[in-house]
Design goal:
globular; 89 residues; mainly alpha
């Protein structure tokens, strides 16, 4: 992977993480959080799409794959995370 591919991978990761945050939380996770969620989402999405025999091409395909993977990643995290107690007034 050359430098420009890495930059595009990170940009798509930020956008995919932000989109997943908007869908799941109603807001993003910040630049670094969005990037982390998006990059993990790209790996998860690529794996799942590969298992299903789905091939995505181009920048839009990479964004869709990463966003779907990020949504799956966040969903699994929510399954295993404990609910937070809210402070009562």
């Amino acid at each position: 992977m050359d430098f420009s591919q890495i930059v595009w991978f990170l940009i798509i990761g930020v956008v995919a993480g932000w989109l997943a945050g908007q869908i799941f939380r109603g807001g993003g996770f910040g630049l670094w959080g969005d990037m982390a969620v998006g990059v993990v989402g790209a790996l998860v999405g690529g794996f799942v799409f590969g298992l299903l025999g789905i091939t995505a091409y181009g920048m839009i395909g990479a964004l869709v794959t990463s966003t779907v993977g990020a949504l799956l990643f966040l969903w699994v995290l929510r399954l295993f995370s404990k609910p937070r107690a809210t402070a009562s007034k």
